[in-house]
Structures are given as C-alpha cells and as structure tokens.
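Subject: Sanity check before I submit

Could someone independently write out the structure tokens for this chain? I want to compare against mine line by line before I put it in a report. The sequence has 232 residues.
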Amino acid sequence: MKSAEFKVPADHTNTGELVLDGGTFTPDKITLGAFEMPDSLVDQMGGETAIPLKDEDLAEDLEDRAKVHQNRFFFGKDPTAPAIGDQKVSYEIVKPGLSSIVAAQLGSTFGDNPTKAGDPISMLESGVVSAEVMFQNAASANTLITWLLRFVGFLFMTFGFMAIMRPLSVLGSIIGMGTGLVSVVLAGVISLLVIAMTWIAVRPVLAIALIVLAVGGFIWMRKMAAAKPAQA
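---
Independent answer below. Compare away.
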C-alpha cells in the first residue's frame, strides 16, 4: 500500500516509487478441454502457488538494487532488517489442472446457467467435484453469508437503539436496566420476527419457534423492568 493511502498519511511518507505495482496477469485464452473459459469463470480460479525465484531471474539493470530473499525480490539494504522504503516483490501462479464447472454451454464457451428461481449461476471448483457437491458447497456458502448479514443487521439495530435511548430519561424503570441490555433485547426481538416472517411459508415450524422466542424475550424484558422498582 502506498503511504498516501494510509488512514493517517502524515509523518508516514515512504521515499521513492514502487518498483512494481501489484496486479493480476491473465492469459488471453484459457481453455477447459475444447472449450474457452469466460472471464466470469476464470475469476473464480484459485489455488495459487508461489513461483520459485533465483538470483538469475533478476534483470541486469536490477542486480545492483535487489537480491532474492525468502522467495521474494527484496529492494533495500538488509532483508533481515527492513526499513521504510524497502520493497518486496513476489509472484504466484495458478497452474493448469482439473476443474469442475456448473454453467451453460454456449458454442465453444460457457455462460450463466438459468435457474427456476430466475437467478443465473456459473460456478467453478478446482479438481473433480460432482454437481451435487458443488451445489451443496454453494448453498453452505450462501447460508453463512446470510447469517453474517443478519448478525451485522442485529448489531446495527442494537447500536441504533442505544443511540436513541441514551438521552431519554422518561423511560423510567427500563432505563434502570441499562440501555445496552434493552437495546440488545429489542434488536434481538425484531431480528427474530423479521427472520420468522421470511421463513413462515417454507419453514413454518422454525418460524413459529422464532416468534415464540421473540415474544419470550420481550416478556422477559418487561418483567425485568417491572422488578426494578420493587428492588429499589
């Protein structure tokens, strides 16, 4: 990263220019058997491995400026004690190998495969992987992303309630519980209700369980709020 892109660039200025900007270099034509791979599938390729580097790989005009250290070109005085302005350059490659794809055949290439839900897909995994396993892996990844987004939404909702309730002193005994706890419970209740509404048609039992849990959380909060004056 360039020092000008630091969050606090002041007093963190690197000297000189980058020897080489980072980048990805893709061949003009990549094939899978007799078919040419589109960019949408090429971008999904992984399994990068480091390219071994030797002193002989240095260009003549760089031999006095760089040396090979730990499989990288090191530009600086001492690779064991790097200083500000020193640079390391390394290379990785995706070697030719077996890949499995789920896509629609379009002549000599591939395109997005239409689905019943209306969302076209094209997937690639390294190695020999069955279509069933690829769909299972995609479903698991989507489930993980969905729950992460739900958790992020829950956190934003919690912080929002905390910001709203902090200056309010008219809530009486509820404030006695602490705005943090109340915010967590309210955000949890609303999150569970929203999730339940999206699942009510396809997973009614789970949706009903979430609704019961949300109602139970709200009732518990009310009881805790009512118990505060009695304890006082």
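---
OP: Matches mine. For the report I'm noting this point. Residues 3-128 form one domain.
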